[in-house]
Design brief:
Helices cover 29% and strands 24% of the residues. By secondary structure, it is α/β, with parallel strands linked by helices. Among the domains are: 132 residues, FAD/NAD(P)-binding domain; 115 residues, FAD/NAD(P)-binding domain (3-Layer(bba) Sandwich), CATH 3.50.50; 101 residues, Enolase-like, domain 1, CATH 3.30.390. Strands 1, 2, 3, 4, 5, 6 and 16 form a seven-stranded mixed beta sheet that branches. A six-stranded mixed beta sheet has the order 17-18-21-20-19-22, with helices on both faces. A four-stranded parallel beta sheet has the order 10-9-8-14, covered by helices on one side. Strand 12 and strand 13 form a beta hairpin. Helix 1 packs parallel to helix 11, helix 3 packs across helix 6 and helix 3 runs parallel beside helix 9. 43% of the residues are buried. The structure holds flavin-adenine dinucleotide (FAD) and NADPH dihydro-nicotinamide-adenine-dinucleotide phosphate (NDP). Flavin-adenine dinucleotide binds next to helix 1, helix 2, helix 3, strand 4 and helix 11. NADPH dihydro-nicotinamide-adenine-dinucleotide phosphate binds next to helix 9 and strand 17.
Length: 513
């Protein structure tokens, strides 16, 4: 095939494009998915399971530092999975240091709290090797999964030649034309290196490089104040590096501000240096080190310091490079993301987009997966169900983990008005921290709307296992649970999350167990 077929301009009314037949359409495939990350893999497998003839293309453009990886996208290779494993390395180190108080004669607790002692006891190379071996196993498993789901996989870059034809180019430059009745774009995002910071792209690394770095990062500057920067700064500190986080404005923009402030002060108490409100202006190579010139964004005062590693985590740009979108009439948002309607349809009726590439979406793996599966069932199983972006839970894996679902206090006040809210918040002791005499406390907050029977519209939890706790509570919030429902729920003792069953207005401290 490969003929230029101009898509109709008609606006669709249903969840599925119907301008072409589902069978006998004459294209090579029913569906081609471009991008083999969280969203693309989920969508392609679900569509194939429902009987569609599907191909998926995945190709990783090397990072500016030359890092490449295998099938599975950001989450598996350079995101959630290596990040959570390295976060765990930090937690394991903490536990090791505390084990003395639980009777173990394994390490001298005080010595383990010193950076130099941690360095002696910790092997970055072994951690990276084990993490990478695990990831390689997942890369292989994803290939097998695709094969057993009858999805044809090509390790090739997809580029649109016209609205129904793509060119797949593999790493050796071999090219193949492929046509399909429908396409799903799931090409995700890549880390930004700010253009205004001289030599940032040449001398710094990003999350694309960190988890496979062949040397210990050492003295590290983490630029940025959201998930990636804080999570990576947290575990790098915990495993014994001298780490500074450079925050230009506020930490964790969009999160509950009180909770975000507590996260950063916990990091600061545990050895991460915080520079706020500062931003870098220039990087210069000085021998093996990198000199960073930076400035105070309020006073314009300048300063400089040298680091072994400079790590930029200042957001991600949509990865549309090389997709050939200029050959389509496809609408992009001002930030370059793909505009879709509530059914993930782009402005070209038979081309859909899911995951991080979508304008107005949420950059999280389970969101990309859910969108991909729902799209496949709408396309190939007559479903009309669409993605619900309300009450998507999330967890920031900083050393003190932070789980949240629903609104921050600031967003709730602006939506419902301060007088219409009851805000229950409390610090609590963590039982496991008591024998090692750790002073860190957990913190919880429930935001309830008075005029709606105290419906819970915001949940915030700082403490161990925040992801596990928040995942459970998210179901209750999704089901419109009220404060009374939380009160009526019997706690599990002795766990941190039981605090949610005993919250009272005005009671801000709990002695816990
Ligand atoms: P991706 O997973 O990015 O996949 C896109 C794929 O398409 C990539 O393999 C890309 O190389 C490929 N591609 C691009 N262009 C082309 C082309 N033209 N042809 C062929 N292939 C192409 N989310 C969470 O929920 N929990 C976490 O703990 C978490 N931690 C994270 C930690 C870090 C450091 C980062 C960076 C992200 C993290 N995320 C986390 C976010 C999560 O990884 C993303 O939301 C998710 O991977 C998005 O999936 P996707 O399918 O949209 O894109
Ligand atoms: P975000 O877009 O979330 O945040 C960018 C951060 O960088 C902000 O703090 C921003 O500050 C700062 N920043 C932007 N530009 C500059 C600059 N030029 N100089 C200094 N600072 C700058 O990006 P992330 O890379 O942290 O994360 C991307 C997405 O990946 C997240 O939004 C999240 O959805 C997902 N993710 C999820 C995780 C999880 O679920 N645990 C973990 C990691 C990532 P300002 O506020 O001032 O703009």
């Amino acid at each position: 095939m490969g003929a230029v077929i101009k898509p109709p301009k008609a606006v669709m009314t249903g969840p599925v494009d119907t301008h072409l037949p589902e069978t006998g359409h004459g294209f090579d495939y029913d569906l081609i998915v471009i991008g083999g990350g969280s969203g693309g893999l989920a969508c392609s497998k679900a569509a194939a399971e429902l009987g569609a003839k599907v191909a998926i293309l995945d190709f990783v453009k090397p990072s500016p530092q030359g890092t490449r990886w295998g099938l599975g996208g950001t989450c598996v290779n350079v995101g959630c999975i290596p990040k959570k494993l390295m976060h765990t390395a930090g937690i394991v180190g903490e536990r090791l240091a505390e084990s003395y108080h639980f009777g173990w004669n394994v390490v001298e607790e005080d010595a383990m709290n010193e950076l130099s002692a941690k360095k002696e006891k910790f092997s970055w190379e072994r951690l990276v090797e084990n993490v990478q071996n695990y990831i390689h196993g997942l890369n292989f498993k994803y290939k097998v999964d695709l094969r057993s789901n009858k999805v044809e996989y090509l390790n090739a870059l997809g580029e649109f030649l016209d609205a129904h034809t793509i060119q797949a180019t593999d790493i050796k430059g071999n090219k193949k034309k492929m046509t399909a009745r429908r396409f799903v774009l799931a090409t995700g995002g890549r880390p930004v290196f700010p253009q205004e910071v001289e030599n940032a792209e040449q001398l710094a690394i990003s999350s694309d490089d960190l988890f496979s770095l062949d040397r210990e990062p050492g003295k590290t500057l983490c630029v940025g104040a959201s998930y990636v920067s804080l999570e990576c700064a947290g575990f790098l500190t915990a495993i014994g590096n001298d780490v500074t986080v450079m925050i230009r404005s506020i930490p964790l923009r969009g999160f509950d501000e009180q909770s975000a402030t507590m996260i950063v002060s916990h990091m600061s108490d545990h050895g991460t240096k915080i520079l706020q409100p500062w931003a870098p202006s220039k990087l210069t190579k000085v021998g093996e080190k990198i000199q960073v010139d930076y400035y105070n964004v309020n006073t314009k005062e300048t300063a400089s310091d040298t680091f072994d590693t400079v790590f930029f985590a200042v957001g991600r740009y949509p990865d549309v490079k090389g997709l050939g979108l200029e050959n389509l009439e496809l609408k992009l948002s001002p930030s370059g993301k793909i505009q879709v309607d509530e059914f993930e349809r782009t402005s070209v009726p038979h081309i859909y987009a899911i995951g991080d590439i979508v304008a107005g979406g949420i950059e999280l793996t389970p969101v990309a997966i859910q969108c991909g599966k729902l799209l496949a069932t709408r396309l190939y199983n007559s479903s009309t169900k669409k993605m619900d972006y309300i009450n998507v839970p999330t967890t920031v894996f900083t050393p003190l983990e932070y789980g949240a679902v629903g609104l921050s206090e600031e967003a709730a006040v602006s939506k419902y008005g301060k007088d219409n809210l009851n805000i229950y918040s409390k610090s609590f002791n963590i039982l496991e921290y008591q024998l090692p005499h750790r002073e860190d406390q957990g913190f919880v907050k429930l935001i309830c709307v008075k005029s709606e029977n105290e419906k819970v519209v915001g949940f915030h939890y700082l403490g161990p296992n925040a992801g596990e706790v928040t995942q459970g509570v998210a179901i209750a919030v999704k089901l419109s649970a009220t404060k009374q429902d939380f009160d009526d729920t019997v706690g599990i003792h002795p766990v941190c999350a039981e605090v949610f069953t005993t919250l009272r207005l005005g009671q801000t401290e709990d002695s816990g167990c």
